[in-house]
Amino acid sequence: MAEHKIGTMDTKVQEKTYEGFVKFTVRSVIAILLFLVFLALVGA
User: Fold this and answer.
1) Which secondary structure element, helix H or strand E, spans residue 33, and what is its range?
2) What Cα–Cα distance (Å) separates residue 31 from each residue in 4, 14, 24, 38?
3) HSE-up (13 A, CA, CB side) for residue 36
4) What tens digit of pLDDT does each residue of 1-44 get?
């Protein structure tokens, strides 16, 4: 088995995935809040 050296792993793919997850989560929360405000204004 190869020796693992701390700090040598390429994490660009993981960072990009995490960035996409955070962006998706923020947009989803904003959309849900806007939908709830819409429902409150309509009186549903």
Assistant:
1) helix 12-42
2) 43, 26, 11, 10
3) 6
4) 678 788 888 899 999 999 999 999 999 999 999 999 999 999 86
Tell me the C-alpha distance between 19 and 25, whole Å. Answer: 10
- Tell me what pLDDT residue 10 has: 87
What's the alpha-carbon Rg for the chain, to the nearest Å? 20
Residue 3, φ and ψ in degrees, nearest 5:
-75, 140
- Cα separation of 44 and 38, whole Å? 9
